[in-house]
Specification:
- The complex is a heterodimer of chains A (115) and B (111).
- Chain A is mainly β and 115 residues long.
- Chain A has strands at 4-7, 10-13, 19-25, 32-38, 44-51, 57-58, 67-73, 76-81, 90-96, 105-106, 110-114.
- In chain A, the strands form 2 sheets. In chain A, strands 2, 4, 5, 6, 9, 10 and 11 form a 7-stranded mixed β-sheet that branches. In chain A, strands 1-3-8-7 form a 4-stranded antiparallel β-sheet, with no helix packed on it.
- Chain B is mostly beta strands.
- Helices cover 0% and strands 53% of the residues of chain B.
- Chain B has strands at residues 5-7, 10-14, 19-24, 31-37, 44-49, 55-58, 61-65, 71-76, 85-92, 99-101, 105-110.
- In chain B, strands 2, 4, 5, 9, 10 and 11 form a 6-stranded mixed β-sheet that branches.
- The chains are: A mainly beta (115), B mainly beta (111).
- Chains A and B meet through strand 5, strand 9 and strand 10 of A and strand 4, strand 5, strand 9 and strand 10 of B.
Chain lengths: 115, 111
């Protein structure tokens, strides 16, 4: 089946540093990928839609300069959390639609802890 | 405002009991998906329903899409501890378009 690979699974960084999270579609091409943020015991909140070869579309309230998204190829999207602060600590998840029956495939998530 | 209202938010039951989770909206969706998520992992798709009134079964899980395509339900028969997890409904308006997630139902099945 379609697989979305997300790395790293866990990262701890110091305040003020930047962290890059990668999301790859392994056996299909994804012109669009979605980035979500999930707080403990809560549902997924869409942050942005990543579009191959063009600018990402950010949801209201999400700072595009803080959460940089690059979708340079049909199989790779990256989310960079710039100048991270403790309040950015969260679980970040990417997803893509492999084109089958509306179903979306999710990455395994990245647990970011900013200290 | 949550476009998809999911209830209950939390459910703790004994092994062998039945349960139903509801997902309601005032909006019409072209598809409704149910996911299950375990701690520290991404959601895993259980089923997609696209036709009003559609019923799909997955072993002990029964999914129904409302006639008007605004609501859905997930019924689990004879729940098992392995069913424990966060259940999420998500609505889509067009294939490949973004999903709108419900608030989730955290299910705990005690042995």
């Amino acid at each position: 089946g379609a697989v979305v690979s997300q790395h790293p699974s866990r990262v701890i960084c110091k305040s003020g540093t930047s962290v890059k999270i990668e999301c790859r579609s392994l056996d299909f091409q994804a012109t669009t990928m979605f980035w979500y943020r999930q707080f403990p015991k809560q549902s997924l909140m869409l942050m942005a839609t990543s579009n191959e070869g063009s600018k990402a579309t950010y949801e209201q309230g999400v700072e595009k300069d803080k959460f940089l998204i690059n979708h340079a190829s049909l199989t790779l999207s990256t989310l960079t959390v710039t100048s991270a602060h403790p309040e950015d600590s969260s679980f970040y998840i990417c997803s893509a639609n492999p084109g089958t029956d509306y179903g979306y495939t999710f990455g395994s998530g990245t647990r970011l802890t900013v200290v | 405002t949550q476009l998809l209202e999911q209830s209950p938010q939390f459910l703790s039951i004994q092994e062998g009991e039945n349960l139903t989770v509801y997902c309601n909206s005032s909006s019409v969706f072209s598809s409704l998906q149910w996911y299950r998520q375990e701690p520290g992992e991404g959601p895993v798709l259980l089923v997609t329903v696209v036709t009003g009134g559609e019923v799909k079964k997955l072993k002990r899980l029964t999914f129904q899409f409302g006639d008007a395509r605004k609501d859905s339900s997930l019924h689990i028969t004879a729940a098992q501890p392995g069913d424990t997890g966060l259940y999420l409904c998500a609505g889509g308006r067009r294939a490949g378009n973004m999903l709108t997630f419900g608030g989730g139902t955290r299910l705990m099945v005690k042995p």
